[in-house]
Amino acid sequence: MTKPTPKRAWGQAIQNRDEQFEMKRQVVLRTAARTYSDRGFHETTLADIADELNISKPTLYYYFKNKDEILFECHRLGIEAITDGDTPMPPAGTCTGRERLEEFLRRYVRMVLDDFGTCLVMTGTNALEPKNRGRVIEGRRKIDQMLRDILQEGVRDGTLDCPDPKMTAMFVFGAMNWLPRWYHHDGGLSVDALSARLIAFVMRAIAADRCDR
Amino acid sequence: MTKPTPKRAWGQAIQNRDEQFEMKRQVVLRTAARTYSDRGFHETTLADIADELNISKPTLYYYFKNKDEILFECHRLGIEAITDGDTPMPPAGTCTGRERLEEFLRRYVRMVLDDFGTCLVMTGTNALEPKNRGRVIEGRRKIDQMLRDILQEGVRDGTLDCPDPKMTAMFVFGAMNWLPRWYHHDGGLSVDALSARLIAFVMRAIAADRCDR
DNA sequence: CATTTTGTTGACCCATGGGTCGAACAGCAA
DNA sequence: TTGCTGTTCGACCCATGGGTCAACAAAATG
């Protein structure tokens, strides 16, 4: 659950003023995301986060409006990690549903094992103020829909065979969202190896040609 | 996530003194488990629980030592629901690993969609005091082991075919532990139907004769 | 009815922790 | 040196909520 922490100090690189500001914001967010995931949102005090960065509590308020905003930003970054990944998902139609499914699972696993993704699935949205809460829920809904669409696409083009795409999606999300609770980055198993195993498991369950071995 | 609440009043049935005491304890626990699951442990105040039962906060302290103990009892009941179910699991050897797996999954799904089981998988153990925390973790470890053993048994007797029972167990637990987050008792899908779907999904993935259809 | 035991409560205590404020301090330009 | 702006912090405020207590109500007991 906790990645090997770089443990970089607070103000390191001396760059442009705005970049420095944005960089420090990021450092706070990463630290917060980790701590929220480990101990839970309500069990984490702002003093905890500040201490971990060797800064004071008011300094946090120089970079963020309040505790909620920090959590919201973590969730937002987690969601963006899939929806607007660095390389976009291959659009529907360019390859089989099964191939798109594999790609989606690979991305999602990577995302959910990154600090922000982990935070997204480990901490509830209850703490967020209504407006931000709604945005997060909407984001997650879109991701849900993405997987459902892919499954249906695979059923249509004959590369997948699952009786109930909606429910199947939930089972698969469950398996993936649970990863941060037991997978440790320091073990012998790499994220890529893990996602390969998970993909194999899912494919055996729903790939149309699942009698291959 | 929230079952149709009976909403029974506080002191209803007039029975033996001790039974009454124990019954009221149970009512508190069920209410607490539901609220903890819905809103989260830290988001739930003792006043919330008390209000829901139309009693006062100090009354809770007449039945329980503190907030932690209430949570612990919920977890304990959740764990017992599988380990010491009303009818014991068929012992290893009396049937195939695959059959035992089906039975285990059926039980686990039922448990995890009951108030206490839901509470067990929805709320973290961080809040518990060290001693109780250890007991809960131990309980969950035993349940983990149970599934792993069943999987290995199935591999041995040839009814199951999964390359890595440990990891497979985690995937399956993930899918099941995620159920309370999306399944609603008031929908058209019964718990039994749901567990049948989940079992079908898992069996397609790891049953040795998974080419049946 | 008196008295003890069992249940219940309003009112209170107080540690925790989110959030604020004004002072201080850095760097930099004129 | 003087000011200006961006950054940091010690000290403080105060609402929340877990937990307590003494008093009161309600059965049981005799």
Identify the notable features of this structure and list them briefly:
homodimer, 213 residues, mainly alpha, Arc Repressor Mutant, subunit A, Tetracycline Repressor, domain 2, 63% helix, disordered N terminus, DNA-binding
Describe the structure.
The structure is a homodimer of 213-residue chains. Chain A is mainly α. The first copy, chain A, folds into two domains: 17-70, Homeodomain-like (Arc Repressor Mutant, subunit A, Orthogonal Bundle), CATH 1.10.10; 74-206, Tetracycline Repressor, domain 2 (Orthogonal Bundle). Chain A has helices at 17-39, 46-52, 57-63, 67-83, 97-112, 115-122, 130-156, 165-177, 191-206. In chain A, helix 1 (17-39) crosses helix 4 and helix 5 (97-112) runs antiparallel to helix 7 (130-156). Chain A is elongated. Chain A starts with 16 loop residues before the first helix and ends in a 7-residue tail after the last helix. The interface between A and B is medium-sized, with 34 and 34 residues. The structure holds a DNA duplex (30 and 30 nucleotides).
Short account of what is shown:
Two copies of one chain form a homodimer. Chain A has nine helices and no strands.
- Model regions low in confidence, pLDDT < 50 over at least 5 residues of chain A: 1-8
With helices defined by DSSP (H or I, 4 residues minimum), what is the helix count of chain A? 9
How many E-type strands of chain A?
A: 0
Under the CATH scheme, which architecture of the largest domain in chain A would be assigned? Orthogonal Bundle
Characterize the overall form of chain A.
elongated
Largest interface: A-B, 34 and 34 residues
Going by CATH, what is the homologous superfamily of the largest domain in chain A? Tetracycline Repressor, domain 2
Largest sheet of chain A, described in full? none
